[in-house]
Amino acid sequence: MIPCALVALKIVGWKLEYDMRSVWLGCIIGFTGAGGQVILFQALRMGPAYLAFPIISLSPVVTILLSCWLLKERARWLSWIGIIFALIAMPLLNYQPPDQSAAGGALWRVLILVVFLAWGVQAYFWKLANATMKAESIFFYMTLTGLALIPVAVLMTDFSKPITWGFKGPYLAALIQVLNAIGALCVVYAFRYGKAIIVSPLTNAVAPLITVLVSLAVNHAKPSLIIVTGIGFSIIATVLITFEPEKLAEAASPAVIVPGVDGPGDPPVSPSA
Question: What is the domain extent for residue 8?
């Protein structure tokens, strides 16, 4: 996260927004994202992954509901069909064969629900924050909150068990997470210029699609019917959402109603404001 945050700040001339609203929104986005990841690690220790990932993959439902209700976002009927197809594709693409090694339990279900809500709320605040602050500042606070949670991750680590310290450990993880950080920065920009009800399901459906296709190509594996169905839904969703005809002005500067800032008679705040 740190290299990408430095690049982002360099883009805007090191001008970080540090007013109370920006700090508050940035920290909410950071803690719901990174905090949800830490909680997910604990949940996977307690419950089966084959149930966890399909549930969490549907977090864009929370984003869509909040964006339609609070931000008054709307989409054309073709895009709504694409959104529905994407929501169907996500749990299918995240399907894993049952693993009876994890017993689950009530606490596991609570933790998964927390992650589900956290990541759905994070995407909503991504869009909300982009209306009044720069995307680069948002990513900086995401980095800061992620670093702040490092002690929690260390405390969760069982150092009595073997830990890989070689290249396949922290170094390989760093290479992988740099790609994740670049993707996260791009998603912040995507929420700045696009509707949350479009960006959230699209990014959550396309990413696992690419992972599945690359895995199948590398491992020469034969996909299951569930995966093939998910691929089909994802491709159709991508086509329907991507090719939605929008006015040039809306695409360049979408209007966003900022709750608590815009009065009933105030004009919508633009991300360029």
Answer: 2-156+166-252
Number of domains in the chain: 1
Contact 122, 33 (CB under 8 A): yes
271 inside domain: no
pTM, entire model: 0.80
Residue 43 lies in a domain: yes
Buried residues in 51-60 as b, exposed as e (16+ CB within 10 A) = bbbbbbbbbb
Residues above pLDDT 70, as percent of the chain: 86
Please tell me the distance from the alpha carbon of residue 180 to that of residue 184, in angstroms, as a whole number: 6
Collect all residues with Cβ–Cβ distance below 8 Å to 17 and sequence separation of at least 6.
133, 134, 137
Confidence (pLDDT) at 36: 94
DSSP 221: P
55 touches 112 (CB < 8 A): yes
Contact between 97 and 49 under an 8 Å Cβ cutoff? The reply is: no
β-bridge partners, 269: 256
Give the pair of three-digit tokens for residue 239: 């086509």
Two structure tokens written together for 168: 């396949």
